[in-house]
Design goal:
- The chain is α/β, with parallel strands linked by helices and about 240 residues long.
- The protein folds into two domains: about 140 residues, 3-Layer(aba) Sandwich (Ribosomal Protein L4, Chain: A); about 35 residues.
- The protein is about 40% helix and about 10% strand.
- It contains nine helices and six strands, in the order E-E-H-H-H-E-H-E-H-E-H-E-H-H-H.
- The chain has a six-stranded mixed β-sheet.
- Helix 2 crosses helix 3 and helix 4 packs across helix 5.
- It is elongated.
Length: about 240
């Protein structure tokens, strides 16, 4: 899947081949919805609490006689029907989070990325490095992309300091390390700007083909080490340590 690489002035500087097993899969809206529920549930504080009958202040003595008052019989002034009494079936402290399988998380991320690519909402940028830290200069360049809101995904190597300073005052813009990409942000923001180096890192993290190749390479190196004579094994130790 071919995609143009642009610079921050919205000019084409090259092409990149996107992995169709990550950026072009069948979209699964149910799984995306489940992932967003999972994210929202994790962020819930869950610190709501009301007092039960055992916790509310008061006496367990009968407030008035059993008979002769004309009122309904009562055994305490703690029940919910009394002013200042307990709350019936009120909320308690709890954890709202639930688990989601790793395969489901990866598939939901792939689906979210595929949605954005299919709608032409993913823009590959060669680099986020800019010469000036002025917000005005960056804002004028980004204006040509015609976005409502934008998420900038940068590489593990770090974000350019000038870009970070310049983008901090532009509304409806957020920056995120590629390690932290999630379905909620991908769906919420209108356009996704991804640094070219981040594409390779995302592909490496989400592609099962690369993981299989890495696993086979590790196994091959271990097999070679075991078959070599003892005097030659030291030659391969450094290589195996890098791979493992």
């Amino acid at each position: 899947m071919k995609k143009s690489i642009l610079n921050l002035k919205n000019k084409t500087v090259g092409d990149i081949d996107l992995d169709s097993s990550i950026f072009g899969i069948k979209i699964l809206p149910d799984l995306i919805h489940q992932y967003i529920r999972y994210q929202n549930a994790k962020t819930r504080q869950g610190s709501h609490k009301t007092k039960s009958r055992s916790e509310v202040n008061g006496r367990s003595k009968k407030p008035f006689s059993q008979k002769g008052t004309g009122n309904a019989r009562q055994g305490s002034n703690k029940p919910p029907n009394f002013r200042g009494g307990a709350v019936s079936m009120g909320p308690v402290n709890r954890d709202y989070s639930f688990s989601l399988n790793k395969k489901e998380k990866k598939l939901a991320l792939k689906s979210a990325l595929s949605i954005k690519v299919s709608k032409d909402k993913v823009i590959i940028i060669d680099t986020f490095a800019i010469d000036s830290f002025k917000t005005k200069d960056l804002f004028l360049n980004l204006k040509s992309f015609d976005y409502d809101s934008a998420l900038f995904i940068y590489s593990e190597t770090g974000l350019d300091k000038n870009f970070k300073l310049a983008s901090s005052n532009i509304p409806k813009i957020s920056i995120l390390n590629q390690k932290g990409i999630n379905v909620k942000d991908l769906i919420t923001f209108d356009k996704i700007f991804i640094e070219e180096k981040s594409i390779n890192e995302i592909t490496k993290r989400l592609s099962w083909k690369i993981k299989i190749k890495t696993f086979l390479l590790k196994e091959l190196m271990i097999l070679l080490k075991n078959r070599l004579p003892q005097r030659n094994r030291l030659t391969y130790n450094s290589t195996i340590n890098i791979l493992l």
